Amino acid sequence: MRRDEFYNRDENEEYDEYSRMYEQQLRRYSAMDGKRYDDTLEFSDLEFHDEEEGYDDYDYDEYEPPQPVRRPSRPSIDYYPQRQRPAQQRSRQPQRRREDLEFGYNNPKKKRRYDDYDDYDDRDYVKPKRRKKKKKSPIKRFFKILIFLIIALFVVFELLIHKYVGMVNTVETGNRFVTNASMYDDDVMNVLVIGSDARSLEESGRTDSMIMLSVNKNTKQITMTSFMRDMYVEIPNNGWNKMNAANVYGGPELLMDTIEQNFDVRVDKYVYFNFYSFIDIVDAVGEIEVEVSTEEVIGMQEPMAEQNDILGNKRGTDYLYEGGNLTLNGNQALAYARLRYVGNADFERTERQRIVISKIMEKAVTFNPFKLNKIASACASGITTNMSEMEMQLLINKLPFMLKYETEELRIPEDNMYSYGNHNGQSTLDVDFGAAQQAIWETIFN
């Protein structure tokens, strides 16, 4: 079909796709020949040639025109199901990389340079919604800090205890001959506090003070039992003598054996101190307040003169001249506890000793760290004990709770449990041991 025939077709004939294709091909050929389109070209020049078939065999009706070439477009928004941002926010977003489209924007490892898709349309992109960090509650933060501080204080407290325990003069328990006492309880701890008239820790002097501290965990009670020094007792392997002689013969271990054999109560631990350590402990707690009579004030001058001579003080140092509610320092408190010849002799002296120990325990309960350090240093460096470091560590941890226990006092022998005697030229107290054992059982264990 020639060109003039093509254009002279029936006007009602529908202008099909092949016509548009023909026009396009015609323009291309014109451009290739360097000529402009004109009407003088023959239609045969534009016919399509096939290698196997001739020109006239070509079926133009079945021809499918090629699709226009388009640049690749980015994936559909359906790949990103998140909610689309408002237009005013989308327009501000920077262009994204192709790999972000393929693998997802949330993949931080896929970061390559974007060289393609210059016509990237950011309006189709939906940035994933960032997860907001939850703000921590101030209450939770406060409790976390509080717990941390408590743990830190506990660790510091334990380290300080370990330091002071290391300052104590700990010794192994020596030979024991009597350890079969029938009065004992696993919930009761008996510690014998021994105050000696020795002038040094190495010297084994006579015991002016023998007080057994019994801590009963069941009844929440602390019992201070004073054993009078002039009791006539049997000292294992050393015959009969005054009770304060046991420490001279065999030290604290023999004194514990003597108590177990005569009073049938188990004593496993002891704490030993002398003149100097007692004075240091009282001064460390910050002096004690005691009701002292004028007669006692005058009687204190004799033991205080001996103490001043030992301590190297001037004559008359720390003397008192009038009774009342007095504040006593270490030197004065020791003279008060040693006072024997005022009142009912040794009976009232044991009572004064229990008063002094009670006052020391009351003053020791403090939360002042500087004062606690002073008290702990004085106590640790001035005593000797057969308790292990682990036992002392556990005992000190329990001490704040034990100091709140109810306190009871007991004196052995009590009234009507003894008679006055004389043995080997010495005035003694002959004890009813059965009655004394009954009193110990009822007060400490019952």
Tell me about this structure.
The chain is of the alpha/beta class. It contains 14 helices and 13 strands. The strands form four sheets. A seven-stranded mixed beta sheet has the order 1-10-7-2-3-4-11, sandwiched between helices. A two-stranded antiparallel sheet has the order 5-6. Helix 5 packs across helix 13 and helix 7 (275-285) crosses helix 10 (330-338). The longest helix is centred in the middle third of the chain and has 28 residues, at 138-165. The chain is elongated and about 155 Å long. It starts with a helix and ends with a helix. Residues 35-39, 46-56, 101-106 and 109-120 have low confidence and may be disordered.
Which terms summarize this structure?
elongated, seven-stranded mixed sheet, alpha/beta
Concise account of the structure shown:
This protein is an alpha/beta fold. It has helices at residues 3-7, 17-32, 87-90, 98-103, 138-165, 246-263, 275-285, 294-299, 301-311, 330-338, 345-364, 369-381, 389-402, 433-445, and strands at residues 169-170, 188-196, 207-216, 221-227, 232-235, 239-242, 269-273, 288-292, 324-328, 384-385, 406-412, 418-423, 426-431.
